[in-house]
Amino acid sequence: MQLIIGDYNYSSWSMRGWLAARASGLPFETVQIPLREADTADHIGRYSPSGRVPCLIDGEGEGRIAIWDSLAIAEYLAELNPALWPADARARAVARAVSAEMHSGFTALRTHMSMNIRKDYAGHGRTPEVLAEIARIDALWQDCRQRFGMQAPVAGPWLFGAWSIADIMYAPVCMRFATYAVGEDALSPLACRYLGEVLTHPHVQEWRVAASAETHLIAAYDSYG
After folding, report:
1. Cα gap 64→86, rounded to integer Å
2. What CDD domains does the record tag this protein with (predicted)?
3. Nearest CA among 59, 65, 53, 66 for reference residue 17
4. How far is CA 49 from the centre of its chain?
5. Which domains are assigned to the chain?
6. Angle 37-40-45 from CA coordinates, rounded to 5°
7. How many CB atoms lie within 10 A of CB 87?
C-alpha cells in the first residue's frame, strides 16, 4: 500500500490517515507531497481522484483502488485489522459516532486553531465558539473514558480502553491543544490526563518528530506569526 500525505506540520487529515495505517500493523509506503506549492495539485492528482490528501492506494493494475478520505481509509484498514475499532458492538457504535463528529464538526477550532506543530501559539484562537467546542470535546472525552475506557475487561488509557480509530481522529486536536496551550485552564483533569497520553503515544511522537524536522513553510497556515 501507498499512503499519500501532505505536510507533517500542517496536515491534520494526513496525520489521521497515517496514524491509522501505523496502527493497522500493515506494511505501507508514505509518499509526501508538500502542500500549497505551484505543482501540488498535479502531484496529488496522480494519486487522489479528489485532489486531496490523505489518499491510500492499495493493489496494482485493474485491482488498484484509491481511498481519498481519512475516515474511509481508517474503515478500510479496520476491515483488514478489526482491532482498530472496539470489539464490543455498543462501544464500537459510540466510537464511530465520536469519530464522525470529529470528521464533520468543530469548524471553529479548525479555523482559529489550525494545526501547526512547530509553533507556540499559547493564548491565541480562543474565540467563544472555539471555547464552546473545546468544552464539547472535553465532555466527549470524559464520557468515553468513564463509560468505556476505564471499565473492565478493556480498561486502558484510551477513549475505549485500547488505542483505536476514535483516538486517532482526535490526535490532531491534541496537537492543536499542545500548540495553543489548552490545558488545565480549559480541560477537566480526566481530559488533561488523556491529552497527555495521546501526546506521548509512540506513533504520535513519530509524527511530531517528522513535523519538527520539516523546513517547508506555508505562510497562510502560520495564523499568528
Report:
1. 29
2. GST_C_3, GST_N_1
3. 53
4. 21
5. 2-81 (3.40.30.10), 83-207 (1.20.1050.10)
6. 165
7. 14
DSSP SS3 for 160:
strand
Q: At what angle do helices 70-80 and 165-179 cross, to 10 degrees?
A: 140
Distance CA 114, CA 80 (A): 32
Instruction: Return all residues near 115 (Cβ < 8 A) that are at least 6 apart.
Output: 9, 10, 11, 12, 15, 172, 175, 176, 179
Cell of 194: 488523556
- What would the pLDDT profile of 150-204 be if each residue is shown by its tens digit? 998 899 999 999 999 999 999 999 999 999 999 999 999 999 999 999 999 999 9
Amino acid identity of 38? A
The cell 479555523 sits on which residue? 111
130 sits in which H/E element: helix 128-144
